[in-house]
Amino acid sequence: MTIEDRQHMDELVSRRHLIEKVAEDLGLKREGKHFFCPSCHDAQPEMVIKDGRFQCFRCGVVGDVVGLVKLARHCDLENALEWLSREIK
Fold this sequence. Notes:
Layout: H1 3-13, H2 18-25, E1 30-31, E2 34-35, E3 47-50, E4 53-56, E5 62-64, H3 65-73, H4 77-87
Antiparallel strand pairs: 1-2, 2-3, 3-4, 4-5
Helix pairs in contact: 3-4
């Protein structure tokens, strides 16, 4: 991935509602405004997604859309960016 590709990806993922769509594409389940955290595997939805970021109030994990992909897919940065580049068009 080139620097220009990464800059384009950064522009795309900065869109406010994109992270919610990515969460759905990753198969994360939600109840109301809260999602089930892929890190906790808990019976309660304690992760919120707001303003392009996520936070789990149970385990404390926080991040952006790339971090959410890394967490949910158990992958590194390069694989997360490749997955996002295929999913976001």
